[in-house]
Amino acid sequence: MFEKIIEEVKNANNIYVSGHINPDGDSIGSTFAVYLALKKMGKDVKPILTKYSKTFSFLPFINEAKDHVEEEKYDLLICVDSSSKERIAIGEEGFSKANRTVLIDHHVKDKDYVDVSVVDQELPAASELVYNFINELNVEIDENIASFLYMGIMTDTGSFNYSSTKPSTYMIAAKLIEAGADFSYICKMINDTMSEGKLYLIKSAIERMEKYYDSMVRYTFIDYKTISSYDVDDEDAEGMTNYLRAVSGTEVAIYVREKSTGELKVSMRSGGKVDIADVAMKFGGGGHKRAAGFTMNIDGSTYEEEKKKLLDYIGVKLNDDFAG
Q1: I need a surface site. Which of 22, 37, 93, 322 has the fewest CB within 10 A?
Q2: CA dihedral 55, 272, 289, 104 (to 10 degrees)
Q3: C-alpha closest to that of 128 among 103, 160, 152, 159
Q4: How far is the C-alpha of 55 from the C-alpha of 215, rounded, in Å?
């Protein structure tokens, strides 16, 4: 499956590994797992990581990441968990300095922006695909690699709660635990630890919740002034949809937050009946059937007008899906 990518790795020495901007657990996990595996092979390899949530600051080796390419040219760029060139953390300039480019991902590819790719949309996390890649490289998965892969799989499966989780996912998780992944510590730091500011942000998100379509859609908006008042940065302001969708009868949860740049980021979660990847693509974004998002474009429009367009389209999807 990975023969062509392995050939690229063997022919390269100077390598960069990059996930996507605003990295989540799967992006960070798959990036650092590849980084550590290639280091064990003796490669000159560097991970790229842009600004990330303080939630991940406990991870080992994370301070070894670079935020830009240091060379004029390098042999190989390995992209992970990144469906489009525009989302790559390494940036356009860093991307252009690579002699060869490859991709390992589980998202729908919107462009053939690399030379070689392995994409499996059936898998719930890029880290599961990276686990298979490292095995085919014949690199031993030690406790550090195992911990990064476990974190990536755990976060992108909602702690193994999402329907995208497969039997292979559980089997790989078991093998990672056998290899030494500190699963209980990872779970505590990711799922059971938050700042006091984030707790207040959750409170605000719930208080501002709006209900549509007989409460099947729950919607909340948080402006950047509110977010910054709680000393919560862009990355730590994620995750509010999880609380909205937890309410019984919710089919779609929508969380719109204003970023420090003024952009409006829309995050959506589905109970399963509505394909919100289709909704996100309608508005220029992407994702999975149950988890997707986009940046709300209000050029030549207003927030209220764009909000209505989104809710109207979701209403159509609700009617279609329930009618079917």
Answers
A1: 93
A2: 60
A3: 152
A4: 32
**CA 170 – CA 124 distance, rounded (Å):** 11
pLDDT at 111 (0 to 100): 59
Rounded to whole angstroms, the Cα distance separating 209 from 237 reads 16
The two counts, helices (H) then strands (E), for the chain are 12, 11
Amino acid at 6: I
Number of alpha carbons in the 13 Å side-chain half-sphere of residue 29 = 27
Q: Name the residue among 286, 297, 237, 299 with its Cα closest to residue 109.
A: 286
pLDDT in tens, 163-178: 889 999 999 999 999 9
Tell me the C-alpha distance between 71 and 51, whole Å.
21
pLDDT 10s digits, 283-305: 988 877 888 899 998 888 899 99
- Residue with structure tokens 């939630």? 55
Q: What is the CB neighbour count within 10 angstroms for residue 69?
A: 21
Say how far residue 280 (Cα) sits from the centre of its chain. Answer: 15
pLDDT tens, position by position, 18-73:
999 889 999 999 999 999 999 999 999 999 999 888 889 999 999 999 999 999 99
User: Tell me, what amino acid is at 62?
Assistant: I
Record the tokens describing residue 286, joined without a space. Answer: 């992407």
- The CA distances from residue 6 to 11, 26, 117, in Å, are 9, 21, 11
How open is the CA angle 176-181-187, to the nearest 5 degrees?
110
Q: What is the tens place of the pLDDT at every residue in 211-253?
A: 999 999 999 999 999 999 999 877 778 889 989 999 999 999 9
- Between CA 111 and CA 248 the distance in angstroms is 38
